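Structure tokens please, single chain.
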Amino acid sequence: MKRRHFVQAGAAGAALLLAGEFFRARAYDDVHISKGKINTLVHRDKPSLLEKKHVPLVEAPKAVKPGQWFKVNVKVGYMVEHPSKPAHWIDRIELQLDGKRVSEIINIAGGVTSPNACFTIRLDKPGDVKIEAIADCNLHGTWLGEPVYIKVS
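Here you go.
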């Protein structure tokens, strides 16, 4: 009788583990399926902890010369660095120039990848350029940061 109880308990435990993995995977898929909604900073004066950890911050020079290479840093979590844990991480950071995607990084696994990115770019045409970053959290969806403008002259 003890062996039968042990086998039943083991089977029940395995079923619970598989169900947990199924629902965790479904939750991940649902977040990515519903990524049509892009989250932004809503509470500018008193941001929520979710906003503090997920809104990407773009750091770039205010002016550059045409054709000059320069760095654009993106920090996910403009006030509090986003965690990077095996179950909660930033899986993508995208860089946009004037609303067009120009580069991105993909993080396949959490816990070992930074919630930040550094892009080295150049702008050839004189004028003002809007730079934005979009970050995807595997649990909390897509977040768009505040734009930064660079003068190319």
